[in-house]
Specification:
This is CHK kinase-like domain-containing protein. This protein is an alpha+beta fold. The chain has twelve helices and nine strands. Among the domains are: 71 residues, 2-Layer Sandwich (Dihydrodipicolinate Reductase, domain 2); 166 residues, Transferase(Phosphotransferase) domain 1 (Transferase(Phosphotransferase), domain 1, Orthogonal Bundle). β4 and β5 form a beta hairpin. α6 runs antiparallel to α10 and α7 runs antiparallel to α8. The longest helix has 24 residues.
């Protein structure tokens, strides 16, 4: 069992990450060269047209554009991300240099095939073009002035590209995912999650069909593209626990008994087939790597932005809540703080539901 599951894990992981080592030398050289080459259409003329349109200013002229990959190779399986530094000027004004993020479909043919079954990039383009502007208008009308999301300058359907303001310019940075979030980061993140969920509840009241398109979460019944990956990681975890001290074997045995039902139970979480349940716009991949924080001079977090809506869906808030808590909190908090932070999220959600004047039925803490 141990050997077979580890083999399956290796095979499924190779579906998610291109292995340069296994490539023939010629293919490997071509692959590396592709990574060094950015699209020719991302140039001064492209940004001149874009900036003139977005700023309603035909006097804008772009003097220089420098484009590079925003992330190291292998850091983002689902997308290709460029950073463009653009030097431009308006009539009668000094030269300005701004940085933009361009997020597009993965360059890997295998990734494009697998992710295409989830329509991850199409969904995310819709979110930035259609959903986030409405969420931001709603928040602003309720006196919530925090940004919460990076601003999309443009959703370029012809190039399948989302052009975003580079939030590094505003002091937002990512944190070390291996450390786990402490109480201050965790509470700030849960508060932002509650804002997202509560504002989406109000948005459904205003536009009842706005989330009809978001039916495929990370686990769903429309595609099994990642089922092999999910199952093999589950098996690898079970085998790993069997190598621990004997007192842990009780849990490994329970996992092994659950194995035939694991995928079905996972899909049931995403089924979203009861109108009586609390339902929100679920981020779907809410964890530390999809958050960026801003800090004060003492190094304390003062703001957070939510990134990456490729696995979003309409469903239970528990999907985001549990996924985030168990993937992103520090070991001490994860082991001892579940009830405390679930209640913290609930009260934040309840407060924002009232602030956004939602009329939908809201559960008590006991029901939640």
């Amino acid at each position: 069992m141990e050997h077979s599951s580890r083999v399956a894990l290796k095979q499924s992981t190779e579906l998610l990450h291109v292995s340069l080592i296994d490539m023939p030398s010629e293919d490997r050289a071509n692959f590396i060269e592709d990574l060094r080459t950015t699209p020719e259409w991302i140039n001064a003329e492209y940004f001149r047209t874009l900036l003139q349109k977005c700023n309603n200013d035909l006097t804008i002229e772009v003097q220089a554009v420098r484009v590079k990959y925003a992330l190291p190779k292998g850091e983002n399986f689902a997308s290709v991300i460029y950073r463009a530094q653009v030097k431009y000027r308006r009539l009668g004004e000094p030269v300005t240099t701004c940085s933009f993020i361009l997020k597009g479909v993965s360059e890997s043919p295998l990734a494009r095939q697998k992710l295409g079954e989830y329509d991850v990039h199409g969904k995310e383009m819709d979110v930035y073009q259609l959903v986030i502007p409405e969420l931001m208008r709603l928040m602003k009308s309720a006196g919530e002035l925090s940004e919460l999301y990076p601003k999309a300058l443009c959703v370029d359907r012809s190039h399948e590209m989302i052009i975003l303001n580079d939030v590094l310019q505003k002091g937002f940075v990512m944190v070390d995912r291996t450390m786990g979030l402490d109480a201050a980061h965790l509470k700030m993140s849960l508060k932002s999650m509650a804002k997202l969920h509560a504002s989406s509840m109000k948005l459904v009241e205003m536009f009842p069909t706005i989330f009809d398109r978001y039916t495929t979460g990370m686990m769903n019944r429309k595609t099994n593209a990642f089922h092999m990956f999910f199952q093999s990681t589950y098996d690898a975890l079970t085998d790993e626990i069997y190598t621990w001290n004997p007192e842990w074997h009780y849990y490994a045995n329970k996992l092994r008994k659950l194995r035939p039902h694991y995928l079905e139970q996972g899909m049931t979480v995403f089924d979203n087939d009861s109108e009586n349940d609390l339902r929100v716009f679920v981020h779907g991949d809410f964890w530390v790597n999809n958050l960026m924080f801003k800090y004060d001079t003492n190094g304390l977090p003062i703001d957070v932005l939510i990134l990456d809506f490729q696995y979003c869906c309409y469903g239970s808030p528990a999907i985001d809540l549990c996924y985030f808590f168990f993937t992103s909190s520090s070991d001490e908090i994860r082991q001892n703080g579940f009830d405390q932070y679930m209640q913290y999220y609930y009260h934040q959600l309840s407060n924002y539901v009232k602030k956004f004047n939602c009329s939908l039925r809201f559960p008590t803490l006991h029901q939640f």
